[in-house]
Amino acid sequence: MTPKETDMPIDEQQQAIDQLAASGIRIPPQPKILTQLDRLIRSTDFDTRAIVKIISQDPGIVAMLFKAARSPVFSRGRKLETLDQILMVIGVKQTYNIVQAAALASTISDSKRRAAFDTFWTRAGEVAQLACLIAEDNVSVCNVFPDQAYMAGMFHECGVPVLMMRFPDYCQKLVLDNVNCWPRLAEEDKKFSVDHCSVGYLVARHWGLPDFVCKAIQYHHDLPADDSGVSYSLICILQMAIQIYHRLNNQANEVWDKIGARVVEELGLNADEEDDYCEEVSRRFLKACR
């Protein structure tokens, strides 16, 4: 049930998904609009009207797309009022990545525990926005683009809501309407004999995310020994985003104590620049949220 390599062949991937299904854990399929969009974009014969028509089928995804696209990172100061404008300003591939992230939140939810899932996706959305800002600052250093960082931010803990749907007591504290109720996921995994990172990895693979994003999702709680490559850089972006999220909510971050120095180095910062950089990103994030 725990994949070890991110280049898992399709047959092994399906076997892992089947093993999860046998234990009652269901990997959600891609929504219909994503498969339609992917098919259309892969063809050479499409225009923005066809893309808009497909995205417009799901009002929930449209709402989340607008929310993300109006971030200064994507809007570039322009007022985006229509899907056509989003596609023109952001680009087709980048818009598709954001739509994938938006579709995830609308797909993995449970009306019976709405408060818990809302708490989870609100946190994921804020981490995604922070990751987006950090990626924009470090494109030349990390070679990770804002839309990719946003997508990874939304997906990075997606194994958690999947397990919440299977085990009602998994992350039970998330029923509290409090950002400080975030549980210790390693302890939750141990209690239920599961691995939320591996489940999240399988979701990402099943949804066709790039390999480096899948690897970042699988290993985002700790940095791999191989300190090179775009997946390592993406993990560092995610960890910096998570650290800033913790700072904004006055939360301790035990993981940062272990890997923070390596993250700061990967992002091209000096140790004495960390606090100032976190404050700067926090300021931009809070301004964008107003």
Question: Keywords, please?
Answer:
mainly alpha; single chain; disordered N terminus; globular; 290 residues; 17 helices
Structure, described:
- The protein has 290 residues and is mainly α.
- It is 66% helix and 0% strand.
- It contains 17 helices and no strands.
- The chain has helices at 10-22, 32-42, 48-55, 59-69, 72-75, 83-90, 92-107, 114-137, 139-142, 146-155, 159-166, 185-192, 196-206, 211-218, 230-248, 254-266, 274-289.
- Helix 2 packs antiparallel against helix 3 and helix 15 crosses helix 17 (274-289).
- The longest helix has 24 residues, at 114-137.
- The protein is globular.
- The N and C termini lie far apart (42 Å).
Q: What's the topology here?
A:
Blueprint: H1 10-22, H2 32-42, H3 48-55, H4 59-69, H5 72-75, H6 83-90, H7 92-107, H8 114-137, H9 139-142, H10 146-155, H11 159-166, H12 185-192, H13 196-206, H14 211-218, H15 230-248, H16 254-266, H17 274-289
Helix pairs in contact: 2-3, 2-7, 4-7, 6-7, 7-10, 8-10, 8-15, 8-17, 10-14, 11-13, 13-14, 14-15, 15-16, 15-17
Task: Describe, in short, the structure shown.
By secondary structure, this protein is mainly α. The protein is 66% helix and 0% strand.
Strand content: under 5%
Please tell me the overall pLDDT.
Answer: 87
Bin the helical content: 55-70%
The first-to-last residue Cα distance is 42 Å
The total of beta strands comes to 0
| Assembly form of the protein | single chain
